[in-house]
Amino acid sequence: MSNTVSRADVGFRSERGPILIALMLTTGLVAIDSTILATAVSSIVDDLGSFSLFPWLFSIYLLAQAVSVPIYAKLSDMVGRKPIVLIGIGLFLLGSILCGFAWSMPALIVFRVIQGLGAGAVQPMSVTIAGDIYTVAERAKTQGYLASVWAISSVVGPTLGGLFSQFLSWRWIFFINIPLCLIAAWMIYTHFHETVEKKQHKVDFLGASLLAGSLSLLILAVLEGGQAWAWNSWQSIGAFALGAILLGLFVWAESRAEEPVLPLWVFSRRLLLTTSLIGLGVGAILIGLTSYVPTYLERTLGTPPLVAGLALAVLTIGWPISASQSGRLYLRFGFRTTALIGLVFTVAGSVALAVTAQTPVLWFVALSCFVIGLGMGLIAVPTLIAAQSSVAWNERGVVTGTNLFSRSIGSAVGVAIFGALANAIFLAAGTETDVAVVEQASGVVFIGVAVAAVATVIAALAMPRGQRVESSAEPAAAA
To answer: Are 182 and 20 in contact (CB under 8 A)?
Structure first.
């Protein structure tokens, strides 16, 4: 496995611009779809009914995406990135078309699974391909571009959802994906070329099945516990127990598999383990803020939903700004120091939110979110690049997928913990509308976010010191 780009790849590298645009477009598909649905829920329920089922439109999509990421990541290391990302776009396209023609809420939920399975391939492959074709020095700016897509989508998504629902039909939320998917697939098919070593592979079907089954049950139990069913109900206990059993069987199977879908060595290397733990923290912090900041502002200050959303959107504006500049820091000081600098911002912003929760001020909340966003750009991107740069091409897919999967797990666990904390306060007070109670519940959630930030500091401190970063290092060839 060569670690440098050969002369035959020079022509390929000259086409990186169109490839990056295609990656940004595919990332945008997933990013917009994660926010566009929120403002159309009322229209969908009015048309299809089944109000009690609408939360599944979000949770089932997240579940399908999360459990498929490690599987796609491993397959990309075996057969290449191009076929996997094209399969992901194809599934996302199929799911979008079916969702647009859904005739009932259960049907729409099932079709969202297909969309989620497509998103599970698109997101990690976009990040992995960027890691393949750009050097370590270039990756920070590239990841900043990809992060900026999420910033734009956080504003564009809800706006489009509202416009389609009000002036056209909620079904256009899904139909708009059709031309975007076709353009992205064509650009990747035309411009992205890779050379993959031809060899026989033994697909780990047993490991993939056990992983998907165990994670589905565990994530479902976390997402729905305390909401669809009580934490101490037989459904909750059964899902956790069976999920744990299947997870144990998965570890056993992977220790014996010839080509495991999720190699256990990923968790035995200090750098990869600590960056995955940081990913857990990043996921928890993000879900805590995105889930509660808008509602907090709306209920305490009477802020209009659009303004409340914009106050949160500055977080995703700060992220790409710092991410695009993080390369200068990690090339000079290293990945560990850069992450710790980012955590200083994140902890400061989180603590500021928690301390001032009882006396909300719109501009201060927005400023705190912006500071946290600046910190996150210095945490998430450098630690992901650190993990990618520590392995060869044939391991980069698994490593990237594991990092992004850790964020998904952090979000799933975070939303359950923060929800339980807030619901406990609402239950004790007997109301969810009193401003004082909302301030108290939000304050507890923000404290939880600050705790997650501090825990992430501990993980960053455990990163190996002195990891050498070569500014001239070339991307590994897919050969």
So the answer is: no
The per-residue pLDDT for range 379-436, each reduced to its tens digit, is: 988 888 888 887 776 777 778 878 888 887 887 778 778 877 877 787 777 666 677 7
Q: Residues 294-309, buried b or exposed e (16+ Cβ, 10 A)? A: bbbbbbbbebeeeebb
Considering just the CA atoms, what is the radius of gyration of the chain in Å? 22
Tell me the C-alpha distance between 62 and 69, whole Å: 11
Residue 451 has a CB neighbour count (10 Å cut-off) of 18
Cα(224)–Cα(222) distance, integer angstroms: 6
Assigned token pair, 63: 């579940």
- What tens digit of pLDDT does each residue of 58-114 get? 777 877 887 788 888 878 877 788 888 899 999 999 999 999 998 888 898 899 989
- Residues near 81 by beta carbon (within 8 Å), at least 6 away in sequence: 125, 128, 129, 132, 192, 194, 397, 478
Q: Per the structure block, which two tokens stand in for 62?
A: 């997240």
Half-sphere exposure of 310 (CA within 13 A, CB side): 8
Structure tokens at 227: 């909401």
